[in-house]
Amino acid sequence: MTAPPNRPIYLDNHATTPVDPRVLAAMRPWWEDNFANPGSVEHTLGRAAEEAVEQARAHIADLIGADAKEIVLTSGATEANNLAIKGAARFAAAQGSDRRRIVTVATEHKCVLESVKALEAEGFEPVFLPVDSNGLLDLDALRAAVGDTTLLVSVMAVNNEIGVIQDLAAIGAIVKAAGALFHTDAAQAAGRIPLDVGDIGADLLSLSAHKIYGPKGIGALYVRRRPRVRIAPLVSGGGQERGLRSGTLAPPLVVGFGEAARVAAIEHMLDAGRIGGQRDRFLAALTAAVPGVAINAADAPRVTGNLNLAFPGGVAAQDIMAAAPGVCVSTGSACSSAEIEPSYVLRAIGLEDARARATLRIGIGRFTSPADVDRAAAMLAEGWHRAVSGTSRAAE
To answer: Do residues 73 and 214 lie in contact, with contact meaning Cβ atoms separated by under 8 Å?
Structure first.
């Protein structure tokens, strides 16, 4: 599916992905034919909506090797992360637990970092571990940080900016040995790498539909049942989602999430191979046209669609983007892309500000075509040349 000549080429699939046509088709009847509340089980339409929601929940669970009863539907990964971290902390505090340390990583998504910071005002001890130059958590540093007072460790599976994959199984083993809870934000990992909550020892895991070619506004939190993990709800109401997330569910969004998960479970390996080929094609064309372009965190394992690229010549990434408006890329997380300061993730891996400011995040996806990457590489290269020329003229 190649972008039309007059339409920008979309290479920002870490910010969001387009809705897969199969997902859209699955959602449509629940907008038009049956708009019933899935909680209205007294009548036929309500029961049909409830059945569709439960079938979708099962597809979401299958994607991560979980049971459908362990899936709590939310508005997205941000809510799921807040519910996991704050919910676990507040439940433990209400039970009089002495465990007060919450450990996370400096390169986590903002919603995780801010959730952990917020709990300090409630008497918890936040710990933010550094990463190496490849964005990976040092396992010895983690071992030193966790102990008898540790309640929860939160480490994201795949970083949303640099695309690096953490060793979740090793991390989970360390966390469980300390008797703590292990949470992972898997929004960028689901559908891109294999995930199994049993293999990685996760107690809590967050997902977002719009990162896997599903609709925006729907996500999920996996909450382990055996042994049972207890969390306090953040939202009070009618007791939906086992009392952990009250509010009327939107069947079209849930069904869309379920279909996206079903497709991802079947096709993620095919996607990864195809996307990896497009990435290599794009990088070869770009490096031929822009000598000196470099991959940040180059030695780390990363998802196939990610390239975090530093451009040479002392030009700002935003200037390259302005000179190449026909390509949709970003300078970092979509949540903070308007910030002028260099990305905190790039600073955490040791990049100097000048290099961080010259970095673009490329996200290649399921529907990116060879023609798209060829055109995008050419346009970004031309944009870089224009930006370099502008910088040179300004210096004269």
So the answer is: no
State which H helix or E strand residue 306 sits in: strand 306-310
Alpha-carbon distance of 222 to 60, in angstroms, equals 10
**Cα-trace Rg, the chain:** 22
- Cβ neighbours of 218 (radius 10 Å): 27
Alpha-carbon dihedral sign for residues 87, 60, 214, 308: positive
Range from 6-10, 77-81, 164-168, 369-373 carrying the lowest mean pLDDT: 6-10
3-state secondary structure of 342: coil
Contact 297, 164 (CB under 8 A): yes
| DSSP 8-state assignment for residue 20 | P
What pLDDT is attached to residue 390? Answer: 75
Its pTM stands at 0.95
Checking if the pLDDT of 392 tops 60, the result is no
Residue pair 80/206 in contact (Cβ under 8 Å)? The answer is yes
335 catalytic residue (yes or no): yes
Backbone angle region of 242, left / alpha / beta, with phi > 0 → left and psi within -120 to 50 → alpha: left
Place of tokens 């002028």: 340
Q: Within 10 A of 286 (CB to CB), how many other CB atoms are there?
A: 21
Q: Which residues pair with 383 in a beta bridge?
A: none
Give residue 65's region: left, alpha or beta (phi > 0; psi -120 to 50).
left
Report pLDDT for 389.
Answer: 87
Between CA 342 and CA 91 the distance in angstroms is 37
Residue 309 has pLDDT above 60, yes or no: yes
Q: Please, where are the H alpha helices in 290-369?
A: 317-323, 344-348, 353-357
**Residue 342, preceding bond cis, omega within 30 degrees?**
no
The architecture CATH gives domain 9-19+268-395: Alpha-Beta Complex (3.90)
Q: How far apart are CA 329 and CA 18, in angstroms?
A: 14
In the chain, % of residues over pLDDT 90: 93
Q: What one-character DSSP code corresponds to residue 12?
A: B
Q: Given a cut of 60, is residue 363 above it in pLDDT?
A: yes
Residue spans of the domains in the chain: they are: 9-19+268-395, 21-262
Is 21-262 a domain of CATH 3.30.70.270? no
Set 322, 335, 354, 371: catalytic member = 335
